[in-house]
Amino acid sequence: MKWSLIGLVISMFAFSMCNSEGGGKEKGSVEMKSDAEFKKATFAGGCFWCMEPPFENLEGVIDVVPGYAGGRTENPTYEQVSSGATGHLEVVQIRYDPSKISYQRLLDVFWTQIDPTDEGGQFVDRGSQYKTAILYHDDEQKRLAEESKVALDRSGKYDKPVVTEIRKFTEFYEAEDYHKDFYKKSPVRYKNYKFHSGREQYLKQIWGDDREREPAENRQSYEKPSEQEIRQNLTPMQYEVTQQCGTEPPFQNEYWNNKREGIYVDVVSGEPLFSSRDKFDSGTGWPSFIQPLEAANVVEKADSSHGMIRTEVRSKSGDSHLGHVFDDGPAPTGLRYCINSASLRFIAKEDLESEGYGEYMKLFED
Q1: What's the predicted TM-score (pTM) here?
Q2: How far apart are CA 113 and CA 115, in angstroms?
């Protein structure tokens, strides 16, 4: 059901020309600890694509893995689980450091990501495989889960009873690789799915600004300069493109044919956006990339200008117009981020350290 919905939605964006719940966590001393010092939490919240981002960059969470649990079949495939025949739930399994984050905190985040009153699935996904559940690993988790469910039921948040199951954890099977970190690998498809499934609107209605935000993958802070500084530092073309949603001429811009190794940052704020490793020749005359370097730094917005329905991409901190993203790109993402050179500043790999982007040197070490 998820794939058919996505196919319907993304077909609206298939225009060929431009006018384009993880990583990033600071591990620190966590890596020095043994597995015995970590604990696991397992939650079913419907589509597991939507359940990874909310947990991924919580301080104390080591990793979040989508998979299947609670069923009868050993080593089930996605096709088997999605048919509803195996009895499995789509789940995420969270490995966390209890000295840094409590199980209660994980429960609080879990409740703000689901509709706990839905007995038949979650939003557009129907069937037992999409039902919500807390699969406890020990008696303490069971107690906390039961107490939190009762508290939520009495909170007055819902006009129907909370029906999320609390059951003992048995076996967990990891999902196929293409499901892992789907929100990073295919951000357009993920956001389209989440919005058109109804999940995003429902959670905003119930929780508003109190809902746990999805994680930022890049922790460094970047700021948009003042209007005066922007006018002083940008060329007329850069200003027109980034501040007035303009479009530069194809094949007559600085980076469309640039083949040097390095990264591309926002010309206004300096936030990292794209890597040469993800650049390809789209034949359009504008720089094209299969994915962002830092997905959290690229914001997507619906664009209905010029009589077309497209997805505009902007920088998060600089709020610069970058270009548009289309779904006609090459594997593995199938995306084409079609970006104006005037929105970018290229930093060659040999200059990354001196320019303050040394953390990205590892991209070019092999």
Answers
A1: 0.53
A2: 7
